[in-house]
Amino acid sequence: MGVSQIRPESVKPSHQPRDLLNPLAFRSEYIISELARLPLAYQPGSRWHYSMSIDVLAHLIETLSDRPLRDFLQERIFSPLGMDDTGFSVPAQNCSRVAAMYGHLDLATHQFTEIVTSATGSVDVSKTYPTGNTTTFARGGHGLFSTTTDYLRFAQMLLNRGQLGGERIISPAITDLMHANHLPSDLMPYSVAVLAMPGYGFGLGSRVLMDPAGSGLPGSAGEFGLGRRGEYILLGGPETRTGWDLHDPAHG
Asked: Phi then psi for 217, rounded to 5 degrees?
């Protein structure tokens, strides 16, 4: 996420990316090369826009570490945290444990505005997010399979300012920087597609609750995470350092 982002629907058809959100279409290096061809939607610093910047960061990790993203995440995050059921694919013997998906329309097959304004319901993602793809299916912005137990460990690590069970994943200073607002006041409130986010700022990868009353939602100042309509929220404010919440998209 960032201040100046690429907005595919705002550019000419000749500049439209092909299947950039489809995890099966291409490897990350091709996706980033195609993304780099698109013009910016806005002048730098003039507006915040939801984008594919996390995918760009993932490709930077692969380039700088000279390792596939899945291997880097396994070594630096999943293994140290004991997240044994998290990855971009699911072993055949565990496929029966994969839960049915309920939520908005599939990110890989619909425009973002369609997704955030759609009703929730059963979603078949077996073609766009296959459990057995161990080659091309590794993206920075989406695609991991996990369990609530594994996710709890990851969330608790963030709430602990970057460490869990004696394993330091991120330094406290970087964790605090991640969960501080980085948007100037003239760019707030920001919006995700057609959804305005009053009361929130944005940090390095997630939203930050600054004004609980202004947001119109229950919460505490300093809460950080993602989602507004049935996605996940991490509670990490000064008064909620040990709490977290995981919302069911079908039931809120």
From this structure: -130, 155
In a domain? residue 116: no
CA distance 246 to 115: 20
The answer for residues whose C-beta is within 8 angstroms of residue 188's C-beta and 6 or more apart is 200, 201
Which domain covers residue 165, as residue numbers?
A: 147-183+205-252
Instruction: Determine, yes or no, domain membership for 130.
Output: no
Cα-atom radius of gyration of the chain, to the nearest Å?
18
CA distance 133 to 60: 22
How many C-beta atoms surround the C-beta of residue 129 within 10 A? 23
Let me know if residue 169 belongs to a domain: yes
Residues listed for the chain: 252
Threshold 0.70, pTM exceeds: yes
3-state DSSP helix/strand/coil % of the chain, to nearest 5:
30, 15, 55
Q: Encode pLDDT of 64-115 as tens digits.
A: 999 999 999 999 999 999 999 999 889 989 989 988 887 776 666 666 667 7
Cβ atoms of 157 and 169 within 8 Å: the answer is yes
CA dihedral 209, 215, 218, 221 (to 10 degrees): 30
- Could you give phi then psi for residue 224, rounded to 5 degrees? -135, 155
In a domain, 158, yes or no: yes
- Number of domains the chain is built from: 1
